[in-house]
Design a protein that fits this description.
This protein is mostly helical and about 150 residues long. It has 5 helices and no strands. Helix 1 (about 1-35) packs antiparallel against helix 2 (about 40-75) and helix 3 (about 85-105) runs antiparallel to helix 5 (about 120-150). The longest helix is centred in the middle third of the chain and has 36 residues, at about 40-75. Bound molecules: protoporphyrin IX containing FE. Protoporphyrin IX containing FE binds near residues 7, 68, 92 and 149.
Length: about 150
Amino acid sequence: MLVPLLIAIHVIGVVIWIGGVAFVTMTVFPMIIRMESSMEKVLFFQGVEHRFAKIAKLCVLIAGLTGAWLLSITDRWSILFERAGVGPSVMLVVWVFYVLVLLFEGRLFKMIFRGDAQQDTAKIFIRLTAFHWVVLGLSLIAIFVGVLSAHGGM
Ligand code: HEM
């Protein structure tokens, strides 16, 4: 009973977090790109991202803890980076990438928006959108490979 329960909690964490990334990428960024003023763009983006970062951090923590717990109780840490563990291995790599982005998010944003007045805000948001599509793509690959490998599809 514990394993299915942990998988269910793990998947809920993943759904809220990656669903949020999909929403920001597919809805919030196109809205920002259409805004007229640079100041409005930056304030709206920082408001949304600041709020979502808190939710994402909690979900990343839940997914990481339940994922690690699942590997521990099923005694399968050794399958990581082996053919049999392709699903959890891809999940772990994507998870570590997210942890790094969330940890250094403050510094990343400062670097991105430094000297905003001189920079072309429209270009910054196009680059940010591209970055979010890459992150979303990696997340979807982790879900795709994870489900396939858990159900005998790989
Ligand atoms: C980007 C982060 C992650 C995503 C998108 C993700 C996605 C998923 C999904 C969709 C499932 C359900 C598979 C199914 O039963 O159909 C799952 C299960 C599982 N995940 Fe993750 N996960 C992530 C992070 C992690 C981490 C960090 C670990 C381990 C440290 C982990 C270990 C597991 C394990 C052990 C299962 C049970 C299924 C199996 O044994 O293959 N996951 N994950």
